[in-house]
Amino acid sequence: MGPAKTIEAVPGAEYPGNYHDQGFHPVHLGDTFANGRYTVKHKLGYGVTSTNWLVHDSVGGGYASLKIVDAAHSPGSQLDVLKHLQSTYDENEQGSQYVMTMLDHFMHDGPNGRHLCIVAEALGPSLAADIEELWSNEIFPPKVAKHLIAQIGLGVRYLHRRNVAHGDLHPGNILLYSPQIASWTDEDVERYLGQPDVRRLRSTDGTSLKDDPSRPKYLIPSPEESSFLRHCFENPHVKICDFSEAFMPTLPRSRSLATPHLYRPPEGLLGNLPHATLEADIWALASLFHVLFTGGYGIFHGDYDDDILRAMVLLLGKLPEPWWPLWDKRSETFDVEGKVLPAYKKVVPGPVKFLDVSAKVMGDREERKLFEELLRSMVRYEPERRITAEDVVESHWFAKYCGIVL
After folding, report:
1. DSSP type of residue 233
2. Sign of the CA dihedral 161, 166, 170, 173?
3. Which domain holds residue 274?
4. pTM
């Protein structure tokens, strides 16, 4: 037997190497799940631990999304959190409409193991999608950004009232929603998602691959999103999704914080948080708000943890105990008091702006002042000093500029 062949990657699709024992479940168009109830019609996307599919529900009579978790992560706490949200759901509570709703769940046995399958409302692209065709500067218009921020803020408050820390708040986990999707016709699916782009798997040396039940015969890249985006932004409505990193105190087990580093608080960069927290969510939420106004820049940005920590100290001052001595590279930029070293001042010649939002986006001086005050209160170093999600939606900026009626 010769060496195993390397499979060629398909741009826009999951890595072929994810199909293995305890990995992804191989899916083909037309496959059915839950004793034939759900039929796969199109690919919606994929994540680190799952693939997502548009399915037709023969019982409900409409379209839904089917998330198939890899076998290794299927025993996690995600289902416990979703069941808790399902049991405490209150359609009359403000914010409930901005959190994804689980419609069904089941386990599916496949060649790579046992997979958790979550059926939810069919949703659109995420806020990480390329919006250049809609807005050439790739920045949301101020009115749209505020509309999105208001919904996300209310959604997080709804979660926190239920003691659920999301643990992974970033644009990729905020998905657009259109109530029309559930009742789409086949023609609508093609209009907004196009025909599925079926790409047969090939080896990198160009030779054919033998059929292997552990992997699909083909991959399907995530659909081209411009038409779908345009449809969703006619009346933008978002939902907070992906509870694979979420935590609540009643869980029998937990996972360490897995928020993308640009959205992590200092205790998540320098400590080893055993699980997501409400306070870490608030820090991530502040960066998310900033991103929606700037087209991609968080409050503290950098390619590496040291760059992010450096940005924190430049903007907020010296890190308090116990984190300051835990940062090994602090002395490369700062003295013992947290002041910038003379040599580094040449690299950063002037004061660093906390709020990097252009005047075109937020020209009103009072609004800029109130928005900065809000963000600063959300990114205080000490977790216990950060404001709560309740405080966020009751803030002066929310009340005056987001049109929130509480």
Report:
1. T
2. negative
3. 16-195+221-299+354-401
4. 0.93
